[in-house]
Amino acid sequence: MARLLVQLKLRLLTNALRASRRAKVSFIISTTFAALVAIGTFLLLAALRGGSSPVAQTGAVFTVFAFGWLLVPLISFGLDATLDPATLALYPLRTRPLAVGLLAASATGAWPLANVIGLLGVTIGIAHGGAAIVVAILAVVLQVLFCIALARLVTTGLAGLLRSRRGTDLAAFAVIPLFVLYEAFTQVVPRLAAEGKITAATFDNLDRWLRWLPPGLAVHAIGDAAAGHVGTGVLRLALLAAIIVAIGWLWIRSLSRALVSVDTSTQASAVRGRPLPFPRAGVLGTVIGRYLIYQRREPSAIVRWCVLVVVMVAASVSTIRTPAYHVALYLSAVLAGGMLSLFNANWVGLTGPAFTLEASALTSRRVIRAYVAGRNLALAVIAVPVAVVVSFGLAAFAGHPLDGFLVLPVDLAAIGAGVALSSLYAVSMAYPAVKRVGSPIPNAADGHGGQQFAGTIGSLFGVPIVVLPVIFAVTLTGSVPSAVRWPVLALCAAGYGLTAAWGAGRWAAALAAARMPELCQVAASSKL
Amino acid sequence: MNEVAIAVHGLRKSFGAKQAVAGIDLEIAAGSFAGLVGPNGAGKTTSLSMMTGLLRPDGGKVVVHGLDVWADPAAAKAVTGVVPAEARLFDRLSGAELLEYAGRLRAMPATEARSRAAQLLDVLDLTDDAKRLVADYSTGMRKKAALGCALIHNPPVLFLDEPLEGVDPVSADVIRRLLTRFVSSGSTVLFSSHVMETVELVCDHVSIIDEGRIVATGTTDQVRGGKTLQQAFIDLVGARATGEEDLSWLGSLSN
User: Fold this and answer.
1) ipTM of this predicted complex?
2) How many domains does chain A have?
3) Which residue among A218, A257, A443, B220 is least crowded, i.e. fewest CB within 10 A of its CB?
4) What one-character DSSP code corresponds to residue B8?
5) Contact check, Cβ <8 Å, B100/A276
6) pTM (2 d.p.)
7) How many CB pairs under 8 A join A and B?
8) Element (H, E) at A443
9) What superfamily would CATH give domain B1-32+45-78+188-240?
10) Which of B54, B81, B106 has the CB atom closest to A517's CB atom?
11) Does A293 reach chain B within 8 Å, measured CB to CB?
12) A501 CB contacts (<8 Å, ≥6 apart)?
């Protein structure tokens, strides 16, 4: 069964690659990144050899990887490529082969392979001797399996929550603790390291806790084997394997429940008989109205806005209480635009087959422009207040509430850039999105993960580039009196962001007009 | 009445090596209730998608209501209504909101869109469910809502892809009556189907498509040629089932 499903996954991947050149290009980009991650991790882990406490440091790296696996599928990266369990529901498959098969299929791909190769750096870093190397290879494979199983369990659980009306509200908040944990690992740790507070002793202290977590078990198994205690190492691996089995069992149970329960998030929710908003604003107002209603009624939209806020906060935590708090404030503002662009870089695919309804009504270039502008405005209408409130909150937390006025221009420019870039990405590299039983957020259809990856990278790097001039303007005008500086900067940045969004919107509309049939085909192959 | 509403010349489309539509010609007079019938995979949906500007053809020309669909897709869209095969709509709008949205997206004043939406929902027997989200609609209700969206701007030409597929007899009757009324006012309907009884009942013009080619076209009586449409269709397209002797293991008696 496992072999069959792995073959199926590979076949789906190659078929998708054969179908379009775009898919091929983006697959190459994504694979190149995976290879870089693999090489970087391998070198990092290998370099720990001979250090003061290599086992503890390796444990920290393994744990960070596990958290990455937990979070990345939630902000929808190209990593979460798995088979659609719903298509297997009709076959009389026993739980065990099904679970093993689905996990094996999940593990087939460039990113899991990159993880295995990268983490194998431990064979140089901490494994000494033949037995230790064998244990190390086993430990790495188990660690990656653990990561995959954990990621699947969390996404399936969250998807289950999202299918009920009350769960929808709950799930939005369930994401937050995960990001808080993430922040602890990726933000606080580098800060402490920069301050020289992290020494070998810190890792040893940390290790007292981490060694009992599954990634720690894997690393200590290698350490034990290298120290000559092969038996203890094998015991640790057995414990890790048992944990993987338990997680896999929990996952397949929640999955089989998900397969036979319905989405009740809309049930019996008669809406008030109010007409659509903005009756006098033409097509522009019509699109804004529809879009705003969707942001409220679509569970995944709510989750996305929550993730945006959490990312903004998490990115700033490390430096917010230090003299360099400005960096934190700017970073979080730029990320607001980046995440906005990332989440909306595929709005045609995410609109799904219903896009055909809109496309058949867009009867002139002018209407298409109004349509794109409506979407962009609706995004900005939500994003600007959210980002500004978070920025002022962070500034207050930093102890300099008035500095919120300095971040405001960056917020405005970043939102403008995010809106601008996402409208361009959406029409130039649209790909079908698929919402599956085991996933809370629609993901790229099989073989289109590369395009998703390109959109993600394009968003996270593109927005900072567009915003850079505004950050320069803010930092270089320190000598100007605040009464002049704040309003002028805010106005200029707002103008800059608006111009970017407006120009990109017009460009995107022209592209969309030329590619409308192709966009319709992409949207029609989305399954939401 | 003899004005041509839909004219198709040499329309073709290939997907890789497979030729889905191999050059079809079709002329449908204004005020016709025309059916496009054919087996699954014959190219019905592909043809209709190309006629409505949703799929770019490899070659050929489509003129709807005097407007070249591929020279000026936007203008042609203004005079057509489309009900796609899979009526995927905006699930998280209510029925009333959806129809209003479809109307206003076509630059209709909001009050006008709203009153037309209410009237259409009434005729389509959806008034009781107008405030429920489309996500909770059944297949038949979705088809009816999609039809409402396609009719709200009163297009002179309406294209429907399998409008009665998966629809219960009561809803099918509602849809049929609405379409008949629409046609009797001089508008044109072209719909695809593989249910011969329905086509025979409502269509005055039939075209049979098979393997991407039109194999027969004309008034329903001409195409029928004295037989039932079902028989004429099978004679033209040909019964394809062979090799049944190989299935000796199939069925309860074989065990």
Assistant:
1) 0.84
2) 2
3) A257
4) E
5) yes
6) 0.76
7) 123
8) strand A443-444
9) P-loop containing nucleotide triphosphate hydrolases (3.40.50.300)
10) B54
11) yes
12) A376, A380, A416, A419, A420, A423
